[in-house]
Amino acid sequence: MITKVVAITMLTAGANAQLPETSEMNVLFINIEDCRADVWGCFGNEICQTPNIDKLAETGIAFNRAYCQYVCCNPSRSSFLTGLRPHSTGVLSNRHNSRQHLPPGTKTLPQLMKERGYYMANIGKLFHSRGAENVEDMRVYDRIEFQERPDGWNGPQPLLQFPDVPKHLQYPPGPPQGDPAYDAWRRGRSDRYGSTGTQDDMETDGKYARTAVALLKELAQSGQRFFISLGSSRPHTPLICPQKYIDMYDPATIPMPHAPRSEDRGVPDLAVRFGRSADIFMSRKPSPEETKAAVAAYYGCVTFVDTGLGMVLDTLEETGLADNTIVFFFSDHGFHLGEHDHWSKYTLFEQSTRVPMIVRIPGNPANGTRCDELVELVDLVPTIGELIGYDVPDYVEGTSMVPLIADPERSWKKAAFSVFGNEGEYNSVRTKSHRYTEWQYKGELIKELYNLEQDPWETVNLADLPANGKTQAEMAALLKGGWKNALPE
Predict the structure, then answer these.
(1) What pLDDT digit, counting tens, does each position of 229-245 carry?
(2) How many CA atoms lie within 13 A of 449 on its CB side?
(3) Helices assigned H by DSSP within 273-332
(4) Where are any strands of DSSP class E within 86-195?
(5) 3-class DSSP state for residue 230?
(6) In this structure, are residues 382 and 399 in contact, taking their beta carbons and an 8 Å threshold?
């Protein structure tokens, strides 16, 4: 490993001279839903079994400090698919129609790739909504695989036809968000964990993986240059998957979550949503036994997803496509598993903001290394643009990671920024050592400051303590200055 890094440094002190020619490579864009970084073995989990993504990390670059820009699906996806930050997209809630909020003329990643001449295929979730607001974004695809389609859809045809999902796994449409019955419907759907009682190929993610395998084999024969976006439905709640993955984890051996609320010191109630979790355990606090069982089920779901992705990555190798396909792997945001007595996302702690990210470029001498520099999901659009050669729009607010992919040890951004709140009123900045968050709530400014080198679970709020005045002032200035003042020098 040391020899490899030294060799990279000797090759060039510049940006990307050591990278192979990438402008004609394929792109496999894997986005996992609701998945925290530290659940994967390659990011430090010693219990959850993820051999396939661990192998991807060994053959690519694993980014240890990757962060989302918003801590729920629609705003995060609207950001990383446009290269705009949430305050600029205007998409600050899952309820927002992204096309009604995005600045006029905003192009999404699929549109940019299509303009570059790629054969386009989507499998699973990409945009948060599959409704009318994203119809035009999805029409750029040549083929598509969805669970459901907008009414009147006359766009790309399905990739493959699989047997119907068993009735007990089908979910009829619920009330619209804002309806008084919506929360009760969501609670009933989501407060579930354990076995589905089906086999892999009957599950949504199992079908997605098999669709991707068949498509890759087809494209290997045709020789078409492709962009495939591959999404997942797990480990989003409900935390259910085939029994064999549930059986891999004995709840009795699962440790209780770190940072119980009883051990927090100075952590404001607002930061943990006043004790209200989302998606699971929404109306009650789970018992220790339920807590362990739910964590075990989350692990089972992740292993199930890893198994399907292993089929896809193996097919890349078997067909020879791995030699000419760039792989991006990441999640839209993180997920709490009981830390601070909280479940799901919707916080500005590490569990919600930090995401797994791996980038593998065939022939990159830096493959097999890790990067400890700060990167953000908003960086994906300019990164792919530099690698593939589409014109990156001037409005993009991310930074191409290509120099960092070539030299993972070079100095990079000073900070990463994350947002929460329907008006974007809650803002957080993360440096390598600290996190600082400001909450504008009912006319009051609530502050948080954590030293993550000493307190990795963010249990002791140091804000407004005299001994931390200098650090707090620096972090507050960094937050106020925004992303432009944190760019690589």
Answers:
(1) 999 999 999 999 999 99
(2) 17
(3) 288-319
(4) 119-123, 143-145, 157-158, 193-195
(5) strand
(6) yes
| pLDDT confidence of residue 174 | 59
Assigned token pair, 434 = 């600290």
Task: From 418, 409, 413, 415, select the one nearest 400 (Cα to Cα).
Answer: 413
Contacts for 480 with CB less than 8 Å, ≥ 6 apart: none
341 to each of 3, 42, 450, 480, how far by Cα in Å? 44, 26, 18, 30
Structural domains of the chain ordered from first start: 24-414 (3.40.720.10)
Beta bridge partners of 76: none
Band of residue 9 on the pLDDT scale cut at 50, 70, 90 = very low
Quote the pTM value: 0.91
Spatial neighbors of 172 by CB under 8 A, at least 6 apart, are none
Tokens 């599959």, located at residue:
130
Q: Is 482 left (phi over 0), alpha (psi -120 to 50) or beta?
A: left
All residues at 6 or more sequence positions from 394 whose CB lies less than 8 Å from its CB, including other chains: none
Residue-wise pLDDT for 169-187, tens only, equals: 444 455 666 677 766 766 6
Two tokens, residue 64: 């240890």
Q: How far is the C-alpha of 461 from the C-alpha of 19, rounded, in Å? A: 43
Indicate the residue type of 15. Answer: A
Residues 6+ positions from 162 with CB-CB distance below 8 Å: 201, 207, 210, 211
Q: Would you state the pLDDT for residue 180?
A: 74
Taken as a whole, the chain contains a residue count of: 489
What confidence tier does 137 reach under pLDDT thresholds 50, 70, 90?
confident
Strands 343-344 and 357-360: what pairing?
Answer: unpaired
Question: What does residue 38 show for φ and ψ, rounded to 5 degrees?
Answer: -80, 15
The owner of tokens 């009147």 is 152
Contact in structure between 300 and 50 (CB atoms under 8 Å): no
Q: What is the C-alpha to C-alpha distance for residues 412 and 372, in angstroms, rounded to an integer?
A: 10
**Residue 32: which residues within 8 A CB-CB, separation 6 or more?**
231, 232, 235, 305, 329, 330, 331, 332, 356
In 10 A of CB 442, how many CB atoms? 7
Question: What CA–CA distance (Å, rounded) separates 215 from 227?
Answer: 11
pLDDT digits (tens, 9 = 90+) for 24-68: 999 999 999 999 999 999 999 999 999 999 999 999 999 999 999
Q: What gap in Å lies between CA 8 and CA 1, rounded to an integer?
A: 11
Q: Given this model, what pLDDT does residue 2 score?
A: 26
> What gap in Å lies between CA 235 and CA 240, rounded to an integer?
8
Residue 455 has pLDDT above 50, yes or no: yes
Is the Cα dihedral 143, 203, 234, 273 positive or negative?
A: positive
